[in-house]
Design brief:
Number of helices: 7
Largest sheet: none
Structural class: mainly alpha
Strand content: under 5%
Radius of gyration: 20 Å
Distance between the termini: 19 Å
Order of helices and strands: HHHHHHH
Helix content: over 70%
Length: 232
């Protein structure tokens, strides 16, 4: 009986890579490229910024590989859901790459700003603001795609029972919560006194869930009886 133990370990490791490198990379370049003074900081600190972006780029490798290694497990229970998950995560990776390229372009804009003098500063300020605004919307759309893919993924896990149901249900609720939170941000709905706490409330559950799922897959693997069984 094939248990797909290797697939489980690989998927678990990929989930950890995708999450860990996202936070590590952001922590490295965030203080530079996300700073209000990015125009004066980005070019002088370009080595650090690029290093952070390259670390974060590891997510682009991990994101599409997760559904590839999950596909042979999930397709036995629902091939449409398995294929849908592959499609959404590939789309997610493309949006991630676009965001990375836009972020890196801020380094060149910073160089132009620093060399332009007062006369041309206004042009580079507007250009930088436009790219940051575009990146914000791409990121929000990226999160929507991530949550929709998550809903498909955890629906497939729930149906297949290859992991405990509590992980699947937790993932479905967390993905739905993040989806609602992202839509509210896109609609610029005022979350009142919660402020940034609201963003943390909507994002933290899915992040923790993915780490629990990753550790479960690495330590326990897939449920052998669920992997062996096929829907009637």
């Amino acid at each position: 009986m094939k248990t797909y133990r290797t697939n489980a370990i690989i998927v678990g490791v990929l989930f950890i890579i995708a999450t860990a490198f996202l936070f590590i990379g952001g922590a490295v370049y965030g203080p530079i490229l996300d700073s209000p003074d990015y125009l004066t900081l980005a070019y002088p600190n370009r080595v650090t910024a690029v290093a952070g972006m390259l670390l974060e780029f590891a997510c682009v490798v991990a994101i599409p590989l997760i559904p590839v290694f999950m596909y042979p497990v999930l397709k036995e229970h629902s091939e449409p859901l398995a294929l849908g998950y592959v499609g959404f995560r590939l789309f997610e990776a493309v949006l991630f790459v676009i965001t990375e390229i836009n972020e890196l372009s801020l380094i060149n804009i910073s160089e132009g700003y620093l060399n332009s003098g007062e006369a041309g500063a206004f042009y580079f300020e507007n250009l930088g603001s436009s790219i940051q605004a575009e990146n914000l919307w791409i990121f929000l759309f990226y999160v929507l795609i991530f949550t929709l893919g998550g809903l498909i993924f955890y629906s497939a896990l729930y149906k297949s029972r290859v992991v405990p149901r509590f992980i699947s249900i937790w993932g479905l609720i967390a993905a739905a919560l993040l989806f609602v939170g992202t839509v509210l941000l896109m609609l610029e709905v005022d979350t009142g006194a919660l402020g940034n706490v609201w963003e943390l409330i909507t994002a933290a559950p899915i992040a923790v869930n993915e780490m629990v799922l990753a550790l479960w897959l690495i330590i326990k693997g897939f449920n052998p009886s669920a992997v062996a069984s096929k829907p009637a």
